[in-house]
Write the C-alpha cells for this entry.
Amino acid sequence: MFSEDFFDLVLNFGEDWKVKKVTVNYQLGEVDVFISYVGLRAECPTSKEVCVIYDHRTNRRWRHLDTLQFKTYINCEVPRVKSSVGVKTVSVPWSDNYERQTYLFERLTIDLLKATKNQTQTAKLLRCGFNVVNRIIHSSVKRGIERRPKDAMFTNLSIDEKSFKKGHSYVTVVSSPLSGYVIDVCEGRDKESTKELLENIVVPEQRNNVETISMDTSTSSAQRMWKAYQSSVAEVFPKTKVVHDRFHLIKYLNDAIDKVRRREVKQHEGLKNSRFVLLKNKENLTAKQQIIFEHIQSANYQVSKAWQTRENFRDIFGSPSTEEALSLFIKWGASVLKTNIKEVIKVAKMFNNHLKGVCNALVERFSNAMAERLNGKIQEVKSVGRGYRTFNNFRSAILFFHGGLDLYPQH
C-alpha cells in the first residue's frame, strides 16, 4: 500500500537518510517507516567533527503526522560517532534527540493547542496521550524563553495577581503594557518570590531604563500583597515610578457611589433601578437613563454629590506634572471632606495613603488596563483547561498562550 519510494519522496530527510522498510498494522491503524543512515561518516553534535560511524543505537520510534487515517511513526537505529569528546549520538533531521515526536508533529500540536486552548481536546484530536501534549507545552515554552533576548529592555512593566486554585493560592504576573504580553509568572505574591521574578526579568544593566511600574492600590484585604509588591519594586528598581492603576482608582469611587445609593434608596424611591445610571459614563446613557439621571441630580441626594466627586477626580487625569497633580489632588480631597459622605471619604483617605502612586497615575498614561485584560485571558485559559493542579503547568499554559513567545521548532 505504502512504498519506500513514496515515503522517501514525501519525508525528504536528505541523501544520507533513506527509507529501508515500511510496515502497516491495519488492526492498530499504524504505519511504521524505518529509516537507515547510509552515509559512512557523520558530524559529532558536540565537537562538530566529521567522524566515521562507530556503531548504532537500538531502534527509536517517533510519532509523525498521520498518513491518511493511519497514525505514522518514524523508526531508526540512530548511528553514533567517536570523536575527541567521546562517543556521541548523531543528530537526526526530523526531531530533537531527546523527544519522541517529530518537528512536524510538534508544530501541529502547537497549532491545535492555540485553536482549542485545551490539552485534553488536543490530545483527543491527535490520538495521543495527554502527557505528550503537556510535554510539548513545557518544551515549547522553554524554547521560546531561551530565544528571548537576554538583555531585553523594558521601559514599562505591570504587576498583578491571579488566583491559582481554591483557597488562598495566588501567582504574580508581570507583563508589558506596551506589547500586551506576559513576561513571566511566579508562585505566590510575597516579597521574596516577587523580587526574584523581577530580578530574573530585567538584567542589572537595564533596570534604570524601566520608567514606570503599574500596580493596583491596596484595600485592607490586599495590604500584605501590595506591600510585598511595593517593597520588591523599591529594592530592584529604586529609580522607577510606581503608578497605581487608573481603572482601579475609578472602580473604588464607583463602589463608594453604589454604597451611598444603597444606603439612600431606603429613604428615596427615586433611586430605585438607578445603579447603572450612576456608574455609566454620562455620554453613554440611554434617553430613559438620562431622564433618571437628571432627576437624581436635581433632587440633590448624597449619591449625586458622590457621583460629582468621581467626575472631579477624572478631570485630574492627564495633569502635565506630578506637582500640578498633587495640588489638584489636595483640592479634590478637601472638597470630598466637605461632602461629609463617609463612603467617599474612606476612598479619599486610601488614595492619600498611596499619594505618590496616585499622583503618578494622574500624570502617566500607562496603567494596569492591559494587565487586567491579560488577567481575563488567563482566566479563560484556566476555565477552558478546567484548572491546573501544579504551578508549573499553570505557568507554562499562561506563557504558551499569552507570552508572545516563538514556540515552534526551527525545522
Remarks:
- The chain is about 45% helix and 20% strand.
- The chain has a mean pLDDT of 88.
